[in-house]
Amino acid sequence: MDFTAKMLRDDALKGKNIVVTGGGSGLGKSMTKYFLELGANVAITSRDLEKLKTTASELEAETGGKCLAVACDVRHYDQVEAMLQSVLAEFGSVDVLLNNAAGNFISPTERLSANAFDTIIDIVLKGSKNCTLAFGKHWIDSKQASSVILNIVTTYAWTGSAYVVPSATAKAGVLAMTRSLAVEWAKYGIRSNAIAPGPFPTKGAWDRLLPGDLKDQFDLAKKVPLKRVGDHQELANLAAYMVSDFSAYLNGEVITLDGGEWLKGAGQFNLLEAIPEEMWDMLEAMIKAKKNS
Ligand code: COA
C-alpha cells in the first residue's frame, strides 16, 4: 500500500475558503498544497510576508489553485482581525480556520526567562485563541451555516512532556478550547476538532527540537511502533478529510496520527519489546513453573 497517495477525490474541497496560520512552510505548507489540489482557495499567514509570497506563488504554479499571502502575527488580536478582513475582501467568505502556527524549542524549564515561556504561550495558546475568537465572532454574526476550526496539537497535550513545558502547557489549553467550543458553538454550525501529529520531520521543528547531532542520537522513528516517521501527505490527507464536508459528524475530537508513538511510551510493559523471540519459551516455562511452587 502506498501511504503517500492522495486520499480524497479531486473536487473534495471545491468552493471552500480556508485560512492556514503558519502556512508558509513545514506541515502548514504541505496541508495548504493538498487543500489547493482539492479545489479550495487558501490564505496562508505568518509574520514573514516575503516567505509567504514565495510559497503562495510556488503553490499556485504547482496546483493551479488560488493561494493568498497575508502577513499576520497571531499574537496580536488587531492583526488577526485585519487578516480576517483581508481574506474576506479577497475570497468573500471563509469556511475553515486551521490553527497551525506554533513556536517551540527544547530547554530545561528553569533555564527559561519569563519572556521565553510567554513567547511560546503567546504564539500557541493566545494565537489560537485570537484566531478562534475573531473567526468565531464573524461566523456567528454573519449567521454562516457551517464552518470548521481545526487545531494542530500534539500527543503531549494530554501526557505533558519534559523539556518543552511551555509548548505542552499551551497545547493542553488549545485542546481544552477545542473540546469546549465543540459543544458551545455547535449550535452555530461551527465544528471544532484537532489533530495530534507524532513525528513528521520538518526543517523548522527539527532544527529547534533536535538541533545538531541530536537528530542522529535520538532517532524518533525508533520510538514509533511502526518504526518510521510520518509522511506529510498522511497528515494532509487527514486534515483535508477533517475540514471537508465528509467529516460533518466529527466534532470535539482529537485524532492522533503518530504510528502508536505515545502509547508505546505509556504502556507499563511495552519495554518487553526488547526481549528476543527465542527467550519467550524460557520465560513461559519459568512463569508456569511458579504455578506449582
Ligand atoms: N532557549 C532558551 N530561551 C530561548 C530560546 C532557547 N533555545 N530561544 C529563544 N529563547 C528566548 C529568548 O531569549 C527570548 O527571551 P528573553 O527576551 O528573556 O531573552 C524569548 O525566548 C523570545 O525569543 P525571540 O527570539 O525574541 O522570540 P521570537 O518571537 O522572535 O521567536 C521563537 C519565537 C523563539 C519561538 C522562534 O523559535 C520562532 O519564531 N519559532 C517559530 C517557528 C517554530 O518554532 N516552529 C517549530 C514549531 S514545532
TrEMBL record:
Secreted found in the keyword field: no
Listed Pfam families: adh_short_C2
Alphabetized UniProt keyword annotations: NADP, Oxidoreductase
Keyword 4Fe-4S on entry: no
Domain of life of the source: Bacteria
GO biological process: fatty acid catabolic process
MF term (GO), any: 2,4-dienoyl-CoA reductase (NADPH) activity
Family listed: Belongs to the short-chain dehydrogenases/reductases (SDR) family.
PANTHER family: PEROXISOMAL 2,4-DIENOYL-COA REDUCTASE, PEROXISOMAL 2,4-DIENOYL-COA REDUCTASE [(3E)-ENOYL-COA-PRODUCING]
Protein's UniProt name: SDR family oxidoreductase
Lineage of producing organism: Bacteria, Pseudomonadati, Bacteroidota, Flavobacteriia, Flavobacteriales
